[in-house]
């Protein structure tokens, strides 16, 4: 029998509208039963537009409902800690947007609260669910290109006006916590390792203000003396997103693979030339919520755990500190 899973949306957000409602409903028994918005009118309009039976402005009212098993949190980053801990205390499982919080201490509190309440906490790092990155991870794990030497990540685009808002005018935003943090998580997934140190330089002023970063160049050092370059930004039109991974016997090339959409290609280049790898694409969010749903019903673990969210945040904040100080920053994960 399919076990129904009732969901509450904490935040009437664009990402919930564009991706998450569909991903929840794609799971057998998945139902969105309520949405919370701090704006009564926005919540009512959101609920009506998406066929959600109930809306509220009260977190307590949503969390007190026995027909809600899990919540998806996509509110302002500064609210994630309070809302996650309240959900855990109410016995609700949590899928939270990245970054988990604005400090490592707050994110760690969230993980500890969920562990104490024995509920599942996941971080919505979608890229590790892509067929492209899953294929690249498998090739690295199998030693297809030998020992790793270096990598480059390209994740710069032009941020549409409708998406700018807090990303370019709020200290909780900026390209590092909004976008580069996904690159960090993807690298952790691909390499099964955390960087040991980072160095970063940022740009600001083309879209962002008050020193908020809208462009980044960073170098991360991984175990085994593997160096990785990241270029990220909000201000670069027409730039393709991708990853190049260089090893002792060849390289892996991921093209157009830094996307929410199920697109992109993977090729391997060795002494035999370049050969494309056959992929079967799937919806990234469907897979994330499939794994999360299985985890809350006792099977396996989420694609990205709360601990993964803490690690990606800690590394992202180290990049910020490096940009601020002009120094290479060592990584010490909690």
UniProtKB/TrEMBL annotation:
Pfam family, one: GFO_IDH_MocA_C3
Ranges of residues in domain Gfo/Idh/MocA-like oxidoreductase N-terminal: 7-125
InterPro entries assigned to the protein according to its UniProt record, in alphabetical order: Gfo/Idh/MocA-like_OxRdtase_N (IPR000683), Gfo/Idh/MocA_oxidrdct_glycsds (IPR050463), GFO_IDH_MocA-like_dom (IPR055170), NAD(P)-bd_dom_sf (IPR036291)
Residue ranges constituting the GFO/IDH/MocA-like oxidoreductase domain according to the UniProt record: 135-252
UniProt keyword annotation of Oxidoreductase present: yes
UniProt entry keywords in alphabetical sequence: Oxidoreductase
Top-level division of the source organism's lineage: Bacteria
Protein name: Gfo/Idh/MocA family oxidoreductase
Organism: Nguyenibacter vanlangensis
Species lineage: Bacteria, Pseudomonadati, Pseudomonadota, Alphaproteobacteria, Acetobacterales
């Amino acid at each position: 029998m399919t076990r129904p899973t009732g969901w509450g949306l904490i935040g009437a957000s664009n990402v919930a509208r564009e991706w998450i409602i569909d991903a929840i409903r794609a799971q057998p028994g998945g139902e969105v039963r309520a949405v919370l918005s701090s704006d009564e009118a926005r919540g009512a309009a959101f609920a009506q537009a998406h066929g959600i039976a109930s809306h509220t402005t009260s977190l307590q009212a949503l969390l007190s409902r026995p027909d809600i098993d899990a919540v998806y949190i996509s509110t302002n980053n500064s609210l994630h800690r309070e809302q996650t801990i309240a959900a855990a205390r109410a016995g609700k499982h949590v899928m939270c947007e990245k970054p988990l919080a604005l400090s490592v201490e707050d994110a760690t509190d969230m993980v500890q609260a969920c562990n104490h309440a024995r509920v599942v906490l996941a971080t919505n790092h979608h890229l590790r669910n892509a067929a492209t990155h899953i294929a690249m991870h498998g090739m690295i794990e199998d030693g297809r290109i030998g020992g790793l030497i270096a990598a480059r990540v390209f994740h710069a685009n032009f941020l549409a006006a409708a998406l700018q808002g807090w990303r370019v005018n709020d200290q909780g935003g900026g390209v590092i916590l909004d976008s580069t943090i996904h690159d960090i998580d993807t690298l952790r997934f691909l390499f099964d390792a955390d960087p040991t140190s980072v160095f970063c330089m940022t740009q600001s002023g083309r879209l962002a203000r008050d020193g908020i970063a809208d462009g980044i160049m960073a170098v991360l050092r991984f175990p085994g003396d593997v160096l990785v370059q990241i270029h990220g930004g909000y201000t670069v039109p027409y730039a393709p997103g991708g990853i190049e991974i260089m090893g002792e016997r060849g390289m892996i090339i991921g093209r157009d693979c830094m996307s929410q959409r199920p697109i992109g290609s993977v090729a391997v280049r060795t002494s035999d030339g370049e050969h494309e790898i056959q992929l079967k694409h799937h919806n990234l969010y469907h897979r994330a919520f499939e794994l999360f749903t299985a985890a809350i019903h006792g099977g396996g673990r989420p694609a990205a755990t709360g601990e993964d969210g803490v690690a990606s945040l800690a590394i992202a904040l180290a990049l910020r500190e490096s940009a601020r100080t002009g120094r290479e920053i060592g990584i010490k994960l909690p």
